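Quiz preparation item.
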């Protein structure tokens, strides 16, 4: 039973994303209560609980799952633990929010999704960028035919992550088996946002390269071999018509952030942000149409920013809007929040991109 109509949340994981994104977003929403935290380091969990005035601090996920006063469990542990923990939440009969990626492989994510469907609880995946006020606005502009029929889409995402130097706390991500890399993390988030607006790919071709095969651990100077790609190029056609191109670039010394151009038969839509993550401000939107050859900046209408979260960074606000979509779904029976089905679609897309690049490499070696 919910507490006074509030959804009681238990969070597993006490990393920076919990502190920066999830806890502030949830505590800004009236229909949620962060009731408990759990993690492997009990002292750290208790410090977080004291800092954010959270009532319960558990030293293990199992203790949190046994708490009858938790309605929704949020899995924010490192990626290799997502699948196992999500299955445990489902078995405990609670709603579950898994941070993206859902697991480290498509096969495991398929298993988790089937399990969630069979048990019948609500499931959410943390693909939150499509829920920002700016994303919902430009998605609506396309639906309203603001630039006519889409001819082409170009997206560039440039970040400083996954480069030649990485911090000690992120060393685990250097193992490709852990599925925490440029394509899975930034590709998953931005591709979900993009294709939710313009339609999914019909076919694609991709090329990927690792341009920094050795990574230095900043604190120790240790040299670690790195095999995951930090440069990804994709081209293809969209299911609703038009062509697309995507560039993902990690390890940038001079970050280029997000740049999207969507050209249509009647105009051009441009979406930009100086950063790829930890964005202080939401994306900027501009349009060029009606015979005018300069871009006009479009302010996002106030109706799209309906939550009391404007004091948070835009990246945290995105999370709040996803939680709001889940609460609305739970109350009304709608299905607006991103689910494990959306996660599986991104897993399958990443497989397509990886397989296409592998074919290209094999052809070049002949």
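Solution:
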């Amino acid at each position: 039973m919910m507490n006074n109509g509030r959804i009681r949340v238990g969070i597993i994981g006490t990393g920076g994303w919990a502190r920066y994104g999830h806890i502030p977003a949830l505590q800004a929403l009236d229909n949620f209560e962060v009731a408990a935290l759990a993690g492997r380091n009990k002292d750290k969990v208790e410090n977080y609980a004291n800092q954010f005035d959270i009532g319960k601090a558990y030293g293990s996920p199992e203790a949190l799952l046994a708490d009858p006063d938790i309605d929704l469990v949020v899995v924010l542990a490192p990626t290799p633990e997502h699948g196992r923990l999500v299955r445990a939440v489902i078995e405990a009969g609670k709603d579950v929010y898994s941070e993206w990626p859902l697991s480290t492989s498509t096969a495991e994510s398929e298993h988790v999704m089937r399990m969630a469907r069979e048990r019948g609880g609500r499931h959410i995946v943390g693909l939150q960028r499509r829920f920002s006020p700016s994303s919902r606005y430009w998605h609506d502009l396309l639906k309203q035919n603001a630039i006519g029929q889409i001819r082409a889409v170009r997206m560039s995402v440039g970040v400083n992550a996954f480069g030649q130097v990485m911090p000690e706390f992120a060393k685990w991500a250097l193992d490709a088996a852990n599925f925490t890399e440029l394509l899975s993390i930034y590709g998953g988030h931005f591709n979900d946002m993009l294709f939710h607006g313009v339609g999914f790919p019909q076919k694609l071709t991709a090329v990927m390269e690792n341009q920094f095969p050795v990574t230095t651990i900043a604190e120790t100077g240790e040299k670690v071999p790195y095999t995951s790609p930090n440069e990804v190029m994709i081209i293809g056609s969209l299911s609703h018509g038009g062509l697309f191109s995507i560039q993902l670039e990690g390890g940038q010394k001079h970050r280029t952030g997000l740049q999207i151009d969507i050209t249509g038969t009647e105009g051009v839509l441009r979406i930009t942000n100086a950063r790829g993550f930890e964005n202080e401000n939401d994306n900027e939107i501009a349009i060029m149409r009606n015979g005018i050859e300069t871009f006009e900046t479009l302010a996002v209408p106030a109706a799209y920013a309906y939550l009391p979260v404007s004091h948070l960074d835009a990246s945290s606000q995105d999370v709040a809007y996803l939680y709001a979509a889940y609460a609305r779904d739970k109350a009304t029976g709608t299905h607006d929040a991103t689910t494990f089905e959306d996660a599986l679609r991104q897993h399958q897309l990443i497989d397509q991109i990886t397989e296409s690049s592998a074919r290209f490499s094999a052809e070049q070696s002949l």
